[in-house]
Amino acid sequence: MDLDALIGCVTSASCVVTQTTSGLIVGMLLFLVAAGLTLIFGVLKIVNFAHGTFYMLGAYLAYTVFAVTGSYVLGVLGGGLGMAVFGVIFERFLISRVYGANVLMQLLICYAVVLICDDLVKIVWGPDFYAMGMPPAFQVPPLFIAGGVVPPFYLVLISAALVIGGALGLGLGLTRMGKIIRAAAVNPDMVSALGINTTLLYSLVFAVGGMLAGLAGGLAAPVRSLTPGMGFSVLIESFIVTVIGGMGSIAGALIAAVVLGLIRSFGTIGFPLFTDGLMYIAMIIILVVKPSGLFGKEIV
Amino acid sequence: MSVPTRSHTLRDIMIGCLVIAALAAIPFLLPSKAFQDFVIRCSSMALFATSLNLLVGYTGLSSFGHGLFYGLGTYSFALLMQKTGLPLPAAFVLTLLLTAATAVVVGAICIRLRLIYFAFVTLAMQMLAHSIVISWVGLTGGDQGLQGGIPRRVVAGIDLGNQYHLYIFSAVLLVIGLLLMRHIVSTSFGTSLRMIRDNEVRAAFLGIVVWRVKLTVFVLAAVFAAVGGIVMSLFVSGAYPELINWPISGDAIFAIVLGGVGSFLGPTVGASILLLLNDVVTRQTEYYGLALGIIILLFALGLRRGLLDFITQRLGGRPAGGIS
Lengths: 300, 324
What we know:
Chain A: It comes from Rhodopila globiformis (Rhodopseudomonas globiformis). Chain A is mainly alpha-helical and 300 residues long. In chain A, 73% of the residues lie in helices and 3% in strands.
C-alpha cells in the first residue's frame, strides 16, 4: 500500500490526466464487453461465461487481419464480424440446448468452450505473447494535456468505443428491432405469441453480443499483449461491471465500467498488488447496499 | 434422493469401514505410489465437492466461490502449523473454527441475495481472498505460495509425513466426512434444506426460518470444504494460490455436475472422474483444455445430467431433484 503516492498523484494535474485517460480506456473497452454480456443476460437470462473468449478471439482475428491487410480498421471490423458469426454458432449449437436448464449446466458448457478455445488459440497462433503494436497511422508524438501524456491513439480508442456504445443505445432505443429486443427481455412468450421469430431473435442477440466483444478485442489489440487465456480477466471484470451496474442494464454497465476503469488506474498507484481486490470490494459493497446493482430494476 | 433411516445409517457406517479396510489392504497387494497419491487427492476433492453439493444439490444455493473455504483450510492450517507451536489436532480444530467464523460473515452477506447475485458475490468473495493471499506476501508468500513444509506431523504414532499413513488418514477423513454429511441431509434439518430448494416461500410459511437454515448449511459446507483443504495442505506440504483461485471452485462444480447432484455419492464419483481425466489427459496431450472441454460438452449435452443420476434413472429409480 502506498497512500503517499496516491495522494501525490491525485494532487498533481499531469498524473490525474494520465491516469484518467488510461482508466477511461480500460473502462470503455470493458463497457463494450460488458454491454454484450448484459444484453445477452437481459434477453436470454443466460450468463455467458464464454464472453471473455469472444474478446480474446476478436483480438486474435484483428491481429491476423491487420497482419494480412495492414489496415487496423479492417482488423477491428474483422474481429467484430468474426465474433458475430461465432456468437450465432455458439448460440445455435450449444447454448440453445440448455435454455431453461440449471445455471450450473449453462456455466459448464461455457467453461468447456473457454477451455477449448484457449487451446485452439494455442494451436493456431502458438502459446507465445503477441504484440500487435500501434498502427502506423497513430505512431505520432503524444499530446500533452496539463502536463499529462496522452497518446492520440487513446483518444481514438475512447471515441470509437463511445460511438459503438452510442450506436447500440440508439439501435435499442429507436429501431423496431431494438423495441422487439427490449420487449423480449420483459416477456419473451408474448413476443413469440405476437408472431415474432424468437429463435432468430436469440441468435441475433448473441450475434450483437459477440460482435461487441469482438470489436472490443480488436480495438484493444494494439494496447494489450495477446495471449491464450487473456479473456479471463476481462470476463471477471465485465462480470463485476454488469453486477455493479445491474444485470441487464446497459446504462448501468457504462457507469460501472468507467468507475471500475478509474478504480483500476488509480488503484495501481496506491495499491499496486491489491488492484483486483479493490474491484471485488467495490462489488461487494454495492451488492450489500443495493443487491440488484445500481440500475437493477430497469431491464435493458 | 433417498432419505436414510437409522438402519441405513448403520449400513452406511459398515460400508464406510469396509471401504477403509479395503483401501488399507490395497497397497500390500498393489504397491503403487501413484494410486496412493490419487486417493489422497481424491479424498480432498471429494470432501470439497460433496460439501458444495450440500449447497447446490440440497439447498439450491449455486455458490461459485466455495473454493474460498477450501483455500482458507489449506492456508490457515499450513500457517498455524508453521508459525505457531500448536500440535496438529489443535491446528486442525482451530482451522475449522476459523473457517466457520469466516463462513458466518461471508454467509451473512451472501445468503440474502438471489440466485445469480448469490453466485457472483460468492465468487467475488473468493477472488477477494485470492487477492489478499497474492498481495500479503509477508504472511502467505504471495504468488510463490507458502513454502517451508509442514512440521510436527507425527500424531499418536501416526506419521503423516509417511505416504501410507497420510493415505489412510485421508481415506478415514473422507469416510467420516461423507458419513457426517450423509447424516446431516437425513435429519429434519436436511428435509428443511430440500424444502427451501423446492419452494422457499412455502418453507417460510411452514415456519422454517429460511435465513437461519441457509446460513447454517453455508457454514457446515464451509467446514467440510476446509477439511478437504487440510488434506490437500498435508499432501502438498504447504499452500498455493491456485488452491484458493477461482478454477478450484470450477473444478468442484464440474465434479458435482459430472457425478450427479441428485445422488449423495455423485460428487465423490465426479471428483474421481475429474482427477482421472486430469491424469490421463495430461499424460497423453499438452492440450488438456481441448480434451477436457470436449469431454465436458459430451457429458453436458449427451447425458444432460451427472453420471450417477443417469445410472439411477436408467435403473428405474425416480428422477432425482436438483439439476436436470
